[in-house]
Amino acid sequence: MRTQASVMHLDLDAFFAAVEQRDKPSLRGKPVVVGGVGGRGVVATASYEARVHGVRSAMSTREARSRCPHAAFLSGRFHAYREASHAVMSLLRSVSPLVEPLSLDEAFVDLQRAGLPDLEVATVTAFAEELRGRVTEVTRGLTASVGLGTSKFIAKVASDLDKPDGLVVVAPGTEQALLRPMSVTVIPGVGPATTERLRRAGIHTVAELEAVSLDELVRLVGRAHGTGLWSLARAQDDRPVVAEREAKSVSVEGTYDTDLTDRRLMEGLLTRQAGEVAARLRKHGMSGRTITIKVRLHDFTTLSRSSTLVSPTDSAATVARTARALLADLDTSGGVRLLGVGVSGLADWVQEDLFGETEEDEEELPAVEVPHHSRRTWSPGMDVVHAEMGRGWVWGSGRGVVTVRFETAETPAGPVRSYAEDDPALTAWVPPPLPDEQD
User: What's the total number of domains in the chain?
Assistant: First the structure.
């Protein structure tokens, strides 16, 4: 653990929902829920206006609708989230070379490499406050909650203490006083199962956890987990901020404007993706044992299935055959909006090479073209453009009609118009690529 509060954790507030409110003026200050909009959907993010009604991430959409029926329920716009995340991560990397992204909306930053005159509490506080303002500027209105501490654990805890749009600095030497009254669930890795085990032992707070011996914790939750809990209960965390992580997987995925229902088409797409993954593996002299497919259904439900081989492979045929077999176990009759193939468990050798076995014939990549059906999919919240009205977003659709509100982040709340779902004047709006996607 460091002697100065030089680790920063930045977390964008209600990220997906905040981006939607920024880009849709009519939704500002109103409850917004982003995620699966169908009956089997799951909430990805809820705005703070929806959270006061009890809506939370990972809650079923059905329950969210019952708690907050007047909310706007929107499917995701990942291009908009990527753009905002790219702006924030670029800003963070401009102030320190040691930035460790955890997801699109949060990252650790090592202020020891930020070129500050010193790392006293007043200095890092002023720096973080100024940086929060710059985040709002580069994202055109989003806010971030920031925590500063002597370790990654303390910085993460601090960023959760004053949400949204808050800043908390934990001064060196005050870490244990901060943690002791808190629930044990504040510690990373303490999920429902561990919480229940600790509860049965009469341990509810960090202070109670701190009073338990290492031997007793090992008996309760195992050696690795118990040792980690024992250290974190004492605010002991020496993990560094790591800017570049070694690749743990190689994957390719695609999102489709029209829900896919043809199983042979899906198999063809997976085969082509498997070929691209295998080519990347061979390019970097890598191979992998675990093949995974990712399938996002029409209602935003995301499924994944994996299979682990007896030895690593970089063969497109092997990856493709395994991916197709995994797809066969899934019910995709309702339509698929995203498909992906990945290989993990990476190694820098291929088992077959060690025994001089001949490589199996590679499958020829199929010429796959996603058909354009006359019946288009209009997901609530998606960006569209009309030949006369300009840019807008889908308010709702059904029974052959799509309703659009015409507004953008730069306009006032706009008018609502309805069109036939196959109106040729209305199309999906395609965003320009990000700078690092130009190639």
Answer: 4
Q: Do both 150 and 211 map to the same domain?
A: no
* Domain region containing 431: 383-435
The answer to whether the annotation marks 257 as part of a ligand binding site is no
Secondary structure class of 104 (helix, strand, coil): coil
Q: Is 244 part of a structural domain of the chain?
A: no
> Cα–Cα distance between 174 and 51 in angstroms, integer?
31
Q: Per the annotation, does 23 bind a ligand?
A: no
What's the CA gap between 260 and 330, in Å, rounded?
Answer: 14
Please check the confidence at residue 247 and state whether its pLDDT lies above 90.
Answer: no
* Mean pLDDT to the nearest integer, 195-204: 95
Give the catalytic positions in this structure: 106
Residue 438 has pLDDT above 60, yes or no: no
pLDDT at 439 over 70: no
- What is the DSSP-derived secondary structure letter of residue 113? G
Answer yes or no: do 336 and 306 share one domain. yes
Express as a percent the part of the chain with pLDDT over 90: 72
Average pLDDT along the chain: 90
CATH assignment of the domain containing 207: 1.10.150.20
Tell me how far CA of residue 279 lies from CA of 144, 271, 291, 317, 341, in angstroms. 39, 12, 15, 11, 13
